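Translate sequence into structure tokens.
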Amino acid sequence: MRNRDNRISTIVFAILVLLVLLPLLAVLFQIVCPGLDLAKFDLSNLSILGDVFARPLWRKAFLNSLALAAGTTAVALLVAGAMAWIRTQYRFPGAKLLDLTAWVLMIIPSFILAQGWVYFSAGNGIAKAWFGLSWMSDYVFSFPGLVTVMTLCKWPMAYITIKTALEWEPIRLMHAAHMNGASAWRVWKDIQLPLMLPALCSAAMLIFMDTVGDYGLSSTITAVYSFPTLPYTIYSAICNSPARFDMAGVLSLCLMVLIVLAMFIQYKAMGSKRYDFLDNGTRKSEPRELTKGKTVVITLIAGGFCIIALGVPIGSSLIMSFSSAISIEGFSFTLENYQSVFASDSTLLTGIAHSLGLAVIAAGIGLIIAFCCAYVLTYSKSPLKKAIDMTTLIAMAVPGVVLGVGYIFVWNQKWLVPLGLHLYGTPAILVLAVVAAAIPLINRVLVAGMAKIPESLMTAAEMQGAGFITKIRTVMLPLLHNSAVSAVLSAFGGSIFNLAITTILYPPNWETLPVWISDSYNDLKFGQAAAATIISGICIITIMFLLERLLNMGSRKKGNAYGNNS
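Result follows.
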């Protein structure tokens, strides 16, 4: 068994090195060898590391990213935990609206959400012009405002992870506590909450990593409010002329330092305790009925939150899609934006098809690789375990723009041409990069799900003669069904709108959806970009809804049967 796990670990780590570490190392190597030109190799360039806190812009970008990520993680974890608890514990009208809101926010790109908040909160935006909320601009374009906006964008990651963990209850432990006089609050605090620690830590890491590496939302809003972050500064270093690859390498290293710090805190929080609790004393959680008054209150809380988190940015973009002007104050209703999107010379539908294809590939291949990663991290004793965990977390935090540049450096080498591996300028390099970006998210969700499955179940299957594939198929996969569906849909939605990677790596004349929308926005065609967002969003949400229904077909019946047999 140990040899088998070591082989799996070796293969998984080799794949992660190729997809993740090699591109990132290529970027970091820019510090001593700008442009990977060996003629420019100079170890004295390492002195630039000391400039991180000496240069005002670099220092401010580092501290801003750390503060924004920490604040967003703390607030979003509380918000997502409360929403997940309400969703799984109580039955109320419109409960599925929370799930729909989370999935929509997962697939809408951060730069589109930021545009919506800018349309709403700018000095001449909807908040002031239509509702008289003149204070909204000062609040949103401040540090607390940025944390609020980031929280409203990032909470779905934690919500999905925590909601999955709350679907099963250690009912035997809860009954034992009640029999010894424990109150409902004491049972939750001393039993349920500690067993949820893996899910909470995974949720916190997801939020922190995504906030630190976010380029789209931070760059869009900070264009109005001066708040430089590491991703934005790295992008500027690469795109400015002349390109500062050494500067990009140094700031990328700063991001890795933040990742290591976050990982250290996570390991200290979890320690060496066990958190598996799925056994014959476990049952599937069932939402409880409430009194009419409490039902109304919870419905208003959940509905109001969804309106703020999703209605404000998407509603603002919807309004802009019908505007003939670039400012809300000059709003005049028109359908020209939608007509231009469906014009015969428009390539939007081609871009949607390409992006959907990339998302399917990323979700499928990413699920297989991430499942192996999660298995190693949960059950294996391989010495590569920590290296694999660190690699997946690093991949999640590093901005897509940095990963994309690394892929150019790796796959644009002359010596690869005779081998047929010169992938730059082909869709293949885009596929590799999108898969690399999808793996960490799927892995984090699956790790949280596997943490609930005790190893004794796997051992019992082996004692009955089940082979490795059989025990995975008959024991683990059924218990991981909900987590796997959540992971696949998350990766599918996130891959469609991966702006940074597709902007850098898409081949000539090979249109993608995020590039099409971004180009329209950069050309000041705000109404056309908003119209494309609304149309593509409706199409993709419909596809994801049908996919979710298909993947979950019959799962409720199987889950109830498992709980009754237990």
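Note: The CA atoms of residues 364 and 488 lie 8 Å apart.
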